[in-house]
Amino acid sequence: MINPPKNDLLLTPAPCKMALEDGTVVTGKAVGFRGETGGELCFNTSMSGYQEIFTDPSYHGQIMMMTYPHIGNYGTMDMDMESVAPMVSGVVVREFSARYSNYLTETSLEAFMKKHKLVGISGVDTRALVLHIRSKGVMNAVISAVDLDDDSLIAKAKGWPSMEGLELASRVTVEKAYDFCEGEGPRIAVFDFGVKQNILRSFKSRGCSVRVFPATTSLKDVLDWKPNGIFFSNGPGDPRAMPDAVAMTKEAMATGIPLFGICLGHQLLSLAAGLDVYKMLVGHRGANHPVQNMVTSKVEVSTQNHGFAVDRASITDDIAKVTHRNLNDETIEGVRFANCSAFSVQYHPESSPGPHDSHYLFDEFMSDIEKNSGVKATKIGLPDLIKVEQLT
Amino acid sequence: MPKRTDIKKILLIGSGPIIIGQACEFDYSGSQASRSLRAEGYEVILVNSNPATIMTDPVTADKIYLRPLTPESIKQIVEEERPDAVLPTMGGQTALNLANTLHEQGYWEKMGVEVIGVDIDAINITEDRQQFRDLMERIGIDQARSRVAKSLLEAKEITQELGGLPVVIRPSFTLGGSGGGIVWTADQFDKKVMRGLELSPVHQVLMEECLFGWKEFELELLRDENDNVIIICSIENVDPMGVHTGDSVTVAPSQTLTDKQFQRMRDAAIRMMRSIGTFAGGCNVQFAFDPKTARMIAIEINPRVSRSSALASKATGYPIAKVASKLAVGYTLDELKNDVTGTTSACFEPAIDYVVTKIPRFNFEKFEGVDEELTTQMKAVGEVMAIGRTFPESLQKAWQSLENGYSGLGGDRDETARFEIRDRLKKSYWDRTLQIRNAFKLGASVEEIADISKVDPWFLYQIQDIVTVEGEIRKRALTQMDREFMLEVKRYGFSDVQIAYLVQDEVTEEEVRIYRKSMGLLPSFQVVDTCAGEFPAKTPYFYSSYEGHNESFPSDKEKIVILGSGPNRIGQGIEFDYSCVHGVLASKEMGYEAIMINCNPETVSTDFDVADKLYFEPVFLERVLDVIEHENPKGIIVQLGGQTALKLSRNFYELGIPIIGTQFDNMDLAEDRSRFSDVLKELGIPYPPYGAARTEGEALLRAQEIGYPLLVRPSYVLGGQGMRIAINKEEVELYTQQIWKLMPDNVILLDLFLEDGIELDVDAICDGEEVWVAGIMQHIEPAGVHSGDSTAVLPPYSISEEIQDTVRKYITEISLRLGVVGLINVQMVIKDDKVYVIEANPRASRTVPFVAKATGVAISNIATKVMLGEKIKTFRERGDLESSLVGFAVKEPVFSWDKFPEVPKELGPEMKSTGEAIAFIKDFDDEHFRKPFEMRNLYLSR
Which of A116, B68, B399, B727 has its CA 20 to 30 A from that of B53? Predict the structure, then answer.
């Protein structure tokens, strides 16, 4: 893949507009697929890792605005895919790098977005929009390179279905159960509500056998596979709109099999245990949030991506103990449930993108499993990537 | 853990005089640390020999020792003060080395002084290349292949093992990479290795695999007692490996790494910090990254705050020194709040939504015969930082900040010749980004330039985009630029000066400005908030960009704008920042809102805790006017920021913007040699015969009239730039040619040189009615050596009272005649008992902080208040003008000759020293006086 000799976006930009449901309209340049899209406009403050973010199933249906101005600098590559295709519904950036530089690059972000029909807008004052959302709360938006009429776009944004009360996991889960990997270590059953590939890789690197099940799989079918541990994945949507999943999770908690949940999985476990979940005014989306482990008092810099959170007021000792808190706003970041072997975190220990500080949680899960069934992980800790000749 | 209560008194060690590689960034970190420790209730004892620092001001510490930074003086202080702990991580390598020396002597232990902020046992690991190597090997961090040589023979053997030249040499235990560099050819080998062996105090050099052309990155880390580690900032060097990071154009955050590559670097950095002992504080790690294979190599680790951490603090808004000092006294990161937001935790990693570019500032013109090629040994004397929403915008703003005549990345003058561009691109020079732009202009491709320069293509694409936009401007007349296009142009960082030059019609900068404003195109101001807008910020720290929304809201208070002095350079350094900071503090004390504009990331003035509002912007007319028009201040203080700020005063005058203190016309009266001589004539004050010339013929004619030896110099410069002593016609020709080459329209001044005269430097404050002489300094070296390079003694040591009275009389008459309100500095020469006035500068001088420290009088503060309407009488009556000086104070110039081994040590009218130290002496038997006195005539050359 070779970069074009000139930056086409600079010389011949195609116009593009984005309208918010509150009537705000911004004009920019069309990037990626020239079409129209809509969704909840949210922002992410990570300064690298745009491809992982765009392909994270938890972002399904959301328009992703990156706060870092230059996006696309190192193009795209297979190893940065967190699922098979982009999951965000649109992309908003301040300055799109039409041309990239990195020896790993396979295609430019522009070509990647075109291939996957991902609509984007560049050249807009993203900071102004971030401050706007920060005070007004997340809202729906529509990006279009085909319809440039303000009123029409605003109407479309207003008509876009709200995320609140929406069940979305069924749209991103696998159709059929499949084996991700086989190993000498514990057998991990993964409930796929929109699982990130790096979670599966994190199990794989510990020698686990991983089978990924569709979100609607019955617990019986999962148990038939004889898992040593069950994992509840991250995913998009409002957990309160998933009563079946909550009921199934409740059943799982009664089995005594060690459970681990991340993000949406954490919310489902919490709801199953009787805790409350609420929608936040502005969610946490970035790779720099401080989370304190209440047991060790150590702080982890974490990757976050959630618009819902567990209500602290609903937590009592007989249900769960808070294990992790967010140092910025004191929101709940992790709990260990009473009367069963289950714990979960709101943030993303698999990172990708983001710091590797929280990978130990996978080891904790391995240790729960070992205590319960005696099956040991073949390797623990983060794969040592520091001294490698070539990163693959 | 909360802060420790078992320690009460802390000794803070400064970094001493400014030298290349160790500059005012340590005044910034030291004063921040001191303020923060005092705020926690600790008593702070500070030692530093550099008088031109804010850290050595009574406002900063509880007790200040202006003493030499030697083990002996530290011991004396410890014995007098009995501190509980010493914090040696804020004063650069100087402080760390001192602490280490005393540690090795067992002194700290003996005295019961705890070393905090660093694991003292681990310092050697970071400084001794072999130990560092072994450690990295143990913890699994890749290294450049290398081995230590103790002799030339050994060096040759190792080079052979490494596969031959090029090879890197790094002498052990030297500052700023002294004596280090790449050896390209066999004929340089012996000389360079021998020099490295000589310079190293342990006479060892590391022979290392050459990583030339690899990418270079830096990470700034903080760790607390609980072993929590956070990365404050990542910095990517635009210049590839082979150029010292202090000499490189750098960008924050890193731009070209994938997240996986970046996280691998982060993991490695954390592992490295944890490997150098258990301590709470700051740390800097540097990596080289092979762009073809992603092999990543650790270059070095510094367990202290650094130039880069100052840059990282300014780039992110995260006050590293402040937090590091709190961590050193026991706090953990989770207990501290992020000062910028006031609500969120300090234990996080800043996310930024703009691009920061740093460009170093060099002074090669000061050193004849200097090798300008950039190597692994630092040569820069200062730096600028610029913030923009994109890399092109910040790069252009950085060029506007440099204050060396550029109005952006080219596009403001005739194009450079093809052969020169080709020549300069081949090697690493300070203007590489400009030469890349020039090469694109000539049609070179990204591949070609990447191949020659090894600069990552991503940066090249960005520069190519700038060139494309420039080409579009060239196709238009000004009025053919519609709003949409003009907005794009401004977003690419182009200044009005560049636009005026580039459009097809003949227009001025002012016309562009008016036209642009008529379209409603004004910059807006954004907050540096550490969190990319995620949380509301309280910090009044702003930068401009061409975005739609504005975040800086002018208050109802009366405002004073203080213009900073821009990048440090020889002749205009930290001394001016000292005065600026006091200008800010005094304005605040007078009840004004003090607004600072500056672009130097190393300084205290750009600490966002200092002014009421900080605009991190180029001290460049357009950018300054943008702020002034936005804030509408009562007036601008221009006399504290050196020549940088002063230069803009003509524009302010013409635009009707009020100047606080001495008015423009009066400043011009002093600056314009002919008008000033008329003033002296009118006052009956003697001055050496002089002449002014615009052409070579005129210069020779004037020279003949005046007689030889002659001082030849350009007008409107500082630090004696381009100034020479000519003893014959040929030299006058040569020197004037040299000046006009650099400054084509300059009026050259020729003065009779008063050979063997005694030179005096006099600082005074005038309120328009009364003049108070702050200090008369007598130089030990004869007239002809630049005052900045002279050893100055306060008060004079061999001048009669009668003559001193004449000196006072002259400066009083001149100040009143010039209508000075604020500071004035007059240079005089005494020859045959007659006092001649050489020049007068109605502004803060380089010697102001020295006099302030020597006498204990807050000169800059008082001068600012006088500018704002206070009378000298008020201060006199309060006793504020009483000097506390006992004996004599000596100002000793400090040079960085070791950085330019090819340049002969010669002193003359052009200033060459980079810093200064102060010494207090009782009598003339003291070696601080005796030594310079004995050698006073030695180095005078031209």
Answer: B399
